[in-house]
Amino acid sequence: MGEERMHPFIKKLREGIRLFDRFIDREVSDIVVYGRVARQRSESIAERAKGKALRALHMGRVARRKADIVGDTVVKKISQVDVADIYRWTTHVIVRHPKKILLLFIVLSSLITFMGLPQVFNNLTADMEIYLPQKGETEQIVNEIRNEPNASWSVDIIILYVYTGNALDKMNITNITDVSVLREMSYIEDSLNPNRTDYGSQDNVKFVISISTIIREVNSTPPRFKKALLDEFPNSAAVLNLTKMEGNYSIPDQKRVDDIIGYIPEDTLRSFVADSNNDSIYDTAGIIIGFNKNLSVEEIKATVDEAIHSGNITHCFIKVTGPVAITESLTARTYKEVSIILPLAVILVCLVLFAFHRSFKIIIIEIIPIVLTIGITLGILGFTSWAITPQVLFVAPVLIPLGVAYGLYIANKYTEIDEKDRRKRMLMALDKTHKPIFLSAATTAIGFASLMTANMHPMRILGFGLSVGIIIAYLVTIFCVPALILLLKYEKAPVIKPTKFVRNFPIANRKKIVAIAIAFSLFSVYTLQFLKANMNLYDLAPQDDESILTMKEYTKRFGGGQLSMFLIRGQPATATSYDFSMKDVDVLDGIDVLESRIRDIQCAKPLSIVDVMKIVRVPEELNLSQIVGSLPGFIPTPGLNLSEIGKNTSFWDAVHMMGDQQLPYIHKSARQVAMDIFYNTLSPEMRGMFVNEEYSKTLIYVDLPAADTRTIKRIVNDINGIVDNLHLSLTSTSHLTGFAPVLVEINDMLFENAFNTLAIALVLVFIILSVFFRSIKIAAITISPIIFVVGLEPLTFRMLNMDLNLLTALIGSIIVGIGIDFSIHVTKHILDEGIGLESIRRTVESIGFSFFEATLTVIVGITAVFVANIPSINQFVIMIMVLLTYSMIAALILLPAIYAIVVLKR
């Protein structure tokens, strides 16, 4: 009843709410059901995941236990592995599969050789700076000079040696200062340096200076002087007639040339021309070319040859020389020489082998491993991408005889063993020889590696190459020589060994032998005071090389050949102050004094901006008094003598005639004005050759002869002493640098490097011997013959009249590495048979002939190096031959004598 009285709207609202409530109940019920189902499913998944996790954990624990078991097994097996087992396994592989072993090494060597060898020749360098310690004072000065912006500075110098027919025949009166000769010289110069304002950025030539350059420079000064004068005195055009100031950069007529020659002070003129035969005719000159490293000597030679041909050069003769030309020639010749030396060394070794063995098989057995060794060694050197000096390539001829010696030990022992089964016999031969060969290779490599401690890059590279080469030679020998012997079925008939007569000699004369050895060693040490280091420039290249012959001739006639320089640093010249700059007269006066003292040193010819200032003249047409007097407000003062300037006065004199009076209108002193005009009168190249852009630095050039290093060292030290004692106010001065001073510095390092590397080699070899023999006493006895041989070095140098050079300085370390082989074989043989008098006798008798054969093979093999005709290398080879012979004799006589003394003292 109540519901019937309700409003229809209320009824509908209540019905809607009731339906909504039922909907909510239904949805909530569904959600609850779904949640219950989801919870049940999640609980099921969790249970399954937990089960899987537990199973995974169990499996992990099982796997770890198994891994531990496997690891323990592996470690146990590794710990049980003996090096001898590895050796036996290796030797069995060699004798069972000789073809595969040989093929493997041939393929490996071919790959390394063809990939690395071209890089060796690409990395060859003729730069002498590579011999200097990195970041040393000399290197820093060289880099400062090279990297000076907007300056024509260079330490890389080429000399064009120019001479006339008068130098060859006095009846020929052609003078270097004849216009015809000067024009030919200028044609050559322009061909090399077409752009004189680029500071070498386009044509790679930084500067060219010669008597021709000086004459053209002076002849071209009037137009530049005119421009500089107008820049300083704009009113001068109205006051003076400047139309007569004419000239150009060319060789003028003979009268003008003679006038310019007359301007040049005699001591300065000697830097440009020479009268080699004292007939009052200048017959010799030099064109000095400073270039950057983008230009090679060969390119310069090609340009000169083309210019001589195209320019119809008939009044003079021109040759290319200079230190850089010599070193580049050495680099260029190296490939040619090595390509001759290597085959020749191989042929010589083959002849010796055939003479001893009468079999071509032994030649194949020895030569194939050597070829593989050299290929791999040079290939590895190529992979390093290091800069390589030509001397490093002589690693190859040194490795040839050493590698052959290792192979001979195996081959000889193989033929001595009485066993029909070849494989067993080879295993027995390897068992007898591999230890002494390994120890020999290790000690030799250590001896060579001591060179890597030197503070010279080439020594370090040479040490690396020799050390790696010896290691490669050992590996190739151990693997390939047995393989070749088995494949070729090599046999050698037994020979009577002519060493029986010495079997008792070391024992019977043991005390006398030791006493004589000690006496000779002490006397040799006494002669050490007479041993000198002397790197002669001429000894660095083949003596038949054109650049060497030309340099000798140039030095003989001209007295120069090695242009050096030192750097003076001051303050930049500013608009308000020239103090302590290269525009400061006081600084230039100091340079003048410095030069005058250097000229007192025999064979030293300096050249600086001061000399140029003395040569360049103020034009005669100039009336400076009239120009300055026309300036508004000018009041002359006492001491300002302008009337004399312009009457053929040099700029040097003109600057000193002027005072420091401040000129009105331009707000500079007369001296400052003159200095500005002078520098602006010079061509950019001439100015840039001597001073930098800010006028804060200047180079003083000193031409030195191409003499031996002891002579050059005296001159360099004298010059450096003058520089140190003459202090220019508020400036710093470097020591002399350039090719000659670099040689001197390298020369001074030779003794230090020689002794340091020798000491390191002896210590390292002694340590290796002590470890190998497990006895310091045995190691000391074994190394004693080498100490004796090293002690004989100074006396040997004295007897052969040799000095230390870049290569002979290495001889001590190298002979330690090479010579110790003999002592090791003697000691090992004696120890194997038990130390006693009889074992000493049998050792001397049994291995003496092998030593003689190995020594002769080494000596004959390295004689191939003499083909290069390079004195420094020839001396090195001679010392190797002599000291190697000493080492063989000491091992066969001195070492057994020492062992005999030890045995008899028991």
Short description:
By secondary structure, this protein is α+β, with helices and mostly antiparallel strands.
Fold and architecture overview:
Among the domains are: 2-81; 334-539 and 744-904, Multidrug efflux transporter AcrB transmembrane fold. The strands form three sheets. Strands 1, 2, 3, 4 and 5 form a five-stranded antiparallel beta sheet that branches. It is flat. It has 33 helices and twelve strands. The chain is 64% helix and 6% strand. With 906 residues, it is α+β, with helices and mostly antiparallel strands. Residues 631-635 have low confidence and may be disordered.
List keywords for this structure.
five-stranded antiparallel β-sheet; Multidrug efflux transporter AcrB transmembrane fold; alpha+beta; single chain
Task: List the topology elements.
Blueprint (H helix, E strand, L loop, with lengths): L1 H4 L2 H73 L2 H14 L1 H25 L14 H10 L10 E7 L15 H14 L12 E5 L1 H9 L1 H12 L3 H4 L14 H10 L2 H4 L3 E2 L9 E8 L5 H14 L6 E5 L1 H35 L2 H25 L10 H22 L5 H28 L7 H32 L16 H4 L1 H17 L19 H13 L2 E9 L15 H15 L5 E3 L1 H7 L8 H6 L21 H7 L4 E2 L4 E2 H12 L2 H7 L6 E9 L3 H17 L6 E2 L3 E2 H35 L2 H16 L1 H7 L11 H23 L3 H26 L8 H34 L2
Antiparallel strand pairs: 1-4, 1-5, 2-4, 3-4, 6-10, 6-11, 6-12, 7-10, 8-9
CATH superfamily of the domain at 334-539 and 744-904: Multidrug efflux transporter AcrB transmembrane domain
What's the mean pLDDT score? 81
Q: Main sheet?
A: 5 strands, antiparallel
Strand content: 5-15%
* Portion of residues within helices: 55-70%
Q: For this structure, what is the CATH class of the domain at 334-539 and 744-904?
A: Mainly Alpha
Low-confidence stretches: 631-635
CATH fold node name of the domain at 334-539 and 744-904: Multidrug efflux transporter AcrB transmembrane fold
Our measurement of the CA-to-CA distance between the termini, rounded to an integer number of angstroms, reads: 144 Å
Number of helices: 33
What structural category characterises the helix and strand content? alpha+beta
CATH architecture of the domain at 334-539 and 744-904: Up-down Bundle
Radius of gyration: 42 Å
Number of strands: 12
The coarse silhouette is flat
